[in-house]
Amino acid sequence: MEQRATERGPLLTDSCAAGQLFRLRLGNEVREHFEAAFLDIRGRLLAVERLFSGTIDCASVYPRVLVQRALAVNAAAVIVAHNHPSGDPIPGRDDMALTYSLREALALVEVLLLDHVVVSATRTLSMASHVGLWAPADNEHAAPRLARLRGSRSR
Questions:
Q1: Which long-range contacts (CB under 8 A, 24 or more apart) does 127-131 make?
Q2: Among candidate residues 85, 79, 91, the one with its CA nearest the CA of residue 121
Q3: Where are the extended beta strands (E) located within the chain?
Q4: Which residue from 6, 102, 131, 142 puts its CA 20 to 30 A from 115's CA?
Q5: What is the DSSP letter of 47?
Q6: Burial classification of residue 10, based on how many CB atoms lie within 10 Å of its CB (0-12 exposed, 13-18 middle, 19 or more buried)
Q7: How many other β-carbons are positioned within 10 Å of the β-carbon of residue 69?
Q8: Beta-carbon neighbour count of residue 141 at 10 Å?
Q9: Which of 12-26, 101-115, 126-140 has the weakest average pLDDT?
Q10: For the whole prediction, is pTM greater than 0.85?
Q11: In whole numbers, what is the pLDDT of the chain averaged over residues?
Q12: Is the pLDDT of residue 144 over 80?
């Protein structure tokens, strides 16, 4: 019981694991939903929350709410996801613009956006791995980015 009370959730530091998590949670939904996985400094899962729900082809997402929830759970990093009920996980321009906005908003409070995963019932797409969505220096796996974040906070 003591171990359960003191340990945090499983590690969630790669796009494959995040894709599996969110595909199971969102893949078969008939409306679009937006969720976030909040991680501690070591990449362990603190919480997963559905933040927004929409219609069959869109959901309104507000960066302010994501930032508030990240601060409330004391997250060091966030992985966000939303589903495409159409079955095609290829992100649109609005998805890409949203990703940049979320990354910038979270950066203001020193929370790292590790990835934005788009899911369908059978496939996932990691925007961190998708060409051109992060600067080349940022286009790494999540674990090294978390390590860099830990290093910058220990100074």
A1: 127/91, 127/95, 127/96, 127/99, 128/15, 129/15, 130/91
A2: 85
A3: 33-39, 45-53, 77-83, 112-119, 124-126
A4: 6
A5: E
A6: exposed
A7: 16
A8: 14
A9: 126-140
A10: no
A11: 85
A12: no
Structure tokens at 51: 């933040």
Which are the contacts of 112, defined by CB distance < 8 A and separation ≥ 6?
Answer: 76, 77, 78, 106, 145, 146, 149
> Residue 21, CB half-sphere, CA atoms under 13 Å: how many?
25
- Taken in order 129, 29, 95, 61, is the CA torsion positive or negative? negative
CB burial string 102-140: b at 16+ within 10 A, e below: bbebbeeeebbbbbbbbbbeeebbbbbbbeebbeeeeee
Beta strands in 12-44 (DSSP E): 33-39
Number of H helices, E strands in the chain: 5, 5
Per residue in 41-73, pLDDT (tens digit) is 999 999 999 999 999 999 999 999 999 999 999
Tell me the residue type at 100.
Answer: Y
Q: What is the DSSP letter of 42?
A: T
pLDDT band of residue 132 (cuts 50, 70, 90) is: low
The more confidently predicted of residues 9 and 47 is 47
pLDDT (0 to 100) of residue 44: 94
